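[agent] plan:
  1. take the single chain provided in the ticket
  2. run structure prediction with default settings
  3. attach structure tokens to the ticket
  4. add a short note for the reviewer (M.T.)
[agent] executing step 1
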Amino acid sequence: MFCLLLSMAPLGCGDEVPPKDSPCGSGSVQLEIGVDDPWRASELLHFSVDEGLQGGYHVDVSIKALGYLDPDSVNILLELDVDGRRIARHVTDDWLLKIYPDEGHCEYPRARLVFTDSDGSLMPLDDVEELIGSQGRLKISLESPDGAGQETFDIHLETLNRR
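[agent] step 2 finished; step 3 output follows
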């Protein structure tokens, strides 16, 4: 019965849905991480930890999105864990991605992941220093009304840059 009803639509049962295009590309969303604005690949997924002006420590990560995604309304979630412990979380709702139509992708530059303790306070320098040289697991989720993508990356916390 359901197929019979669908047979009146342009596509019948078993037909594939044609790929949709968006300013970020077409097909399923693929995410890449890097640094800077515009996006630049990070050598071996190594990231520097920087001291901020307000006494905290952070990693900046830029995201490149390729695929069917609405760049005008994206919910962005990044979570960084080290040894199963969450050390940073970045949330931005209903945001605009930068569009690069000639290259067929979109970008979210310089997402700042501020290191915190389990109580939400800024992580002290001694704890940050212990993280240098460790592997972290970065989970990224981009969701829009017209598509979504999720990826997990193993990153290396390479150096500590103090002011």
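[agent] step 4 note for reviewer: Residues 24-161 form a domain with the Immunoglobulin-like fold (CATH 2.60.40.2550).
[agent] ticket updated
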